[in-house]
Amino acid sequence: MTSNRQIQIVAMPEDKLGPEHFRLEEAEMPSPGPNEVLCRTLYLSLDPANRAWMQGATYRSALQAGQVMAGFTLAEVVESNHTGFSPGDLVEGDGGWQEYFVQPGKRLNKRPRREPITHLMSALGITGRTAHYGMAGIGQPEPGETVVVSAAAGATGSVAGQIAKLKGARVVGIAGGAEKCRRLVADFGFDAAIDYKNDNLFQALKEKCPDGIDLYFDNVGGQTLEAALFRMNLHGRIICCGVVSQYDTANPAPGPRGVPGLLVTKRLTMRGFLVGDNPDMVATADRELATWVDDGSIVVAEDVVDGLENAPAGLIGLLAGENFGKRMVKVA
Amino acid sequence: MTSNRQIQIVAMPEDKLGPEHFRLEEAEMPSPGPNEVLCRTLYLSLDPANRAWMQGATYRSALQAGQVMAGFTLAEVVESNHTGFSPGDLVEGDGGWQEYFVQPGKRLNKRPRREPITHLMSALGITGRTAHYGMAGIGQPEPGETVVVSAAAGATGSVAGQIAKLKGARVVGIAGGAEKCRRLVADFGFDAAIDYKNDNLFQALKEKCPDGIDLYFDNVGGQTLEAALFRMNLHGRIICCGVVSQYDTANPAPGPRGVPGLLVTKRLTMRGFLVGDNPDMVATADRELATWVDDGSIVVAEDVVDGLENAPAGLIGLLAGENFGKRMVKVA
Fold first, then answer.
1. Adjacent-strand bridge partners of A253
2. ipTM of the modeled complex
3. pTM of structure
4. Do B269 and A272 touch (CB under 8 A)?
5. Are residues B130 and B269 in the same domain?
6. Is the distance from CB of A99 to CB of A71 less than 8 angstroms?
7. Considering only CB atoms, which chain B residues are within 8 Å of A255?
């Protein structure tokens, strides 16, 4: 236990992210200072946002070459100099792509153990909470409304769509490929699915949303957002959760046509959010999501990559859309 | 009184609007049917929206060649078959570019006379109400917030900015040309002005909004919206009132960069609105605006074109930004 394997950023991607941007290194085991906690990473979350952090400053400072790659982790306390934590505690935090990390106790969040533990990284983790805050907290779908979710086979979209179904909405998911679309309906109970790789989006939205769109939960931006804008109903709401179509490129597309023209003529509201902004909502989300997962109202889809050394390929594949459900790396 | 001069649309503009798209015709005096009212147009409102109606369906059906050009009017009742109206009543309605028009009584709105009557077309008319609903009703600026208004020398922007000042905000206006910018500060009491024709927008917004932008009241869209997006503060609000930069062209620009990326990272809200959606707000607006105009809290700027035959040139000039304040046509 004297060495700490970690994945460092070799160079920032100029265009698409590749394996050449990462290297596996052996570093010294870190040691906790006053009020700090040493943690052992169990699972590492892979998220499109990881790539966005490499593009520039977002809600966190831009990542830089030479740093350990950043990532959200589920971990176990090994040694604690903080009164709030003891060895063996399960915690989540911004640990990065490494086997062990040290954080101040105030930046860690204790979580009760449950089986399977992976649910704490998927439906009960940051993506599930994001889906809950965005859909139940902000979007607030009403029974009978038509809700469209993009990246609907992903970690956030799959939960967001199922929450909209629980609220009585008619839910249409957008995903890439026939198999994902089949599973949106079969596994998650969506009312319809659109394959953005093979369908004409404008035409498909017209067919699958004959009454227009009341609420669009957008994980992708770009052309998908543009197509949805043209199909929105009067007074429709667009929840801006992510922009995955624009993360893995040096040349982000211009904004969607219809902004702001269609916002005016259709009186639309577009709202961006980050789950961390509202701790009260997180508590509500954790309680409701656990109930829904336990009683089977929400089906959890997970895509677990084994081994820290496979995290780069896992993220590259995630950006190419190869995952179904929440992708994470089993580190220990 | 047997002939009715009117301006008809000859052909829809393919690109920029020009005098060749209109013709002056003499039509027969219309006659009111059951529950209809014959009105004599006193003032005709010229608005950027007139041009938007020629681009396609908006919140009204697209205009078509051969029709009388559409426009909002202040008029006097000549003959009434509706119990709610009597000859001599002052009314506002969708009368179009003509000396006389007939409308069902239910589509007319009676207004109390006041001096000068033109105020009923400017600060107390549709643009003033739009400014009130958008700024006071939706934007709700707080004391000390930084508010930016585009097309700030226009009919809506000039009132919206002054309302934000009344609410205690620091107000920065964007307009075209040094003289307009001078008057934003001198006439309307704005804290600063930016000349979009001569200043670098990104740089100027940085200088004039050192604490960022909390609320952006957008009348123009396009590059101005894009520049504002990059200067917005966390949790900022963007009120989408109009898109004048994109109306007079066959090739609308793509949407602004930063949509939806900056909406997510900065947790912004963009909201479009139309004043007609909320009759309760209109009543509040009429009451508050009249008070503010009467006590001098709001300075009214008007730009009156004389004669129906000059309406086409008046609208073409408005789209080129030659007006200061509310442009209208004195018809009778």
1. none
2. 0.94
3. 0.95
4. yes
5. yes
6. no
7. 226, 254-260
